[in-house]
Amino acid sequence: MAKLNRDLILREAQRVFARHGFRKTSLEDIARPLGVTKAALYYHFPGGKMNIIDASFEQEEKKILLAMRQAVEEIRRPEEKLRQALLAKIEHIRSLRRTLDLTGEVNQELKCLYEDHERQFLIDERKLFEEILELGEAGGVFRKSPEESLARGIQLVATQLVSTLIFEDDPEIIRRRLDEMLDILFFGIMKRS
Fold first, then answer.
1. How far is CA 122 from CA 96, 117, 128, 183, in A?
2. Which of 11, 13, 105, 159 is the most exposed place for a label (fewest CB within 10 A)?
3. In Å, what is the CA distance from 57 to each residue of 51, 64, 82, 191?
4. Where does residue 44 rank: exposed (0-12), middle (13-18), buried (19+ CB within 10 A)?
5. 127-181 pLDDT tens trace
6. Do 110 and 102 touch, CB atoms closer than 8 A?
7. Is residue 44 in a domain?
8. Does residue 87 sit in helix, strand or coil?
9. pTM of the prediction?
10. Helices in the chain by DSSP H: which ranges?
11. How would residue 8 be classed by pLDDT, with cut points 50, 70 and 90?
12. What does the alpha-carbon distance between residue 152 and residue 41 come to, in Å, rounded to a whole number?
């Protein structure tokens, strides 16, 4: 067996949380398949189960943000940058959901736990959206407006979109719904004269 470390514990914890949910999972449930005691888990995560779930969230947030930044790296048009950033986020979370085989009930429980914490990820994600908005404003693609409030609005819509699309298996439907949301974001719902 591999030497016990934080990553190994987090991988096993994600698997167990996905199967039983956070509330029903005990530290013994995580320690048993690793062949260790609860004390070994406390050595790496002194805050116990809550410390483990927080570390798991933080690990996935870093991966999501990296995927979003990589998705926009080579793209020049700001509207396409925004589309690809959101698509990368949706795809990463969908992939994680499939890998962990999350049920709707466990997904909802983890979502509620996640929403209880203000995370650095939200700040970093908002900065990425602000950078894209500033680029679009400077290029005359987007109108001038407070980037932070627009970025917060994009985050709000993206969060709702992600939660509805992570259980969708058809990539074409995902792209179509994302494009519909972006169409409303870019052009509004008002009929232009």
1. 19, 10, 10, 23
2. 105
3. 10, 10, 23, 42
4. middle
5. 999 999 999 999 998 888 887 888 898 998 888 888 888 888 899 999 999 999 8
6. yes
7. no
8. helix
9. 0.82
10. 6-20, 27-34, 38-44, 48-72, 78-100, 104-115, 120-138, 147-165, 171-187
11. very high
12. 37
Q: What is the pLDDT of residue 161?
A: 86
Number of domains in the chain: 1
- CA dist 114 to 53, 107, 169, 178, Å? 9, 10, 23, 23
SS3 97: helix
Whether 141 is covered by a domain: the verdict is yes
* Structure confidence by residue, pLDDT tens digits, 103-116: 778 877 877 777 76
CATH number at residue 81: 1.10.357.10
> Which tens digits make up the pLDDT trace of 17-53?
988 889 999 999 999 999 999 999 999 999 999 999 9
CA dist., res. 31 & res. 65, Å (int): 29
What is the dihedral sign for C-alpha 85, 86, 91, 92? positive
Tokens of 70: 């990589």
Would you mind telling me the total number of residues written for the chain in this entry?
Answer: 193
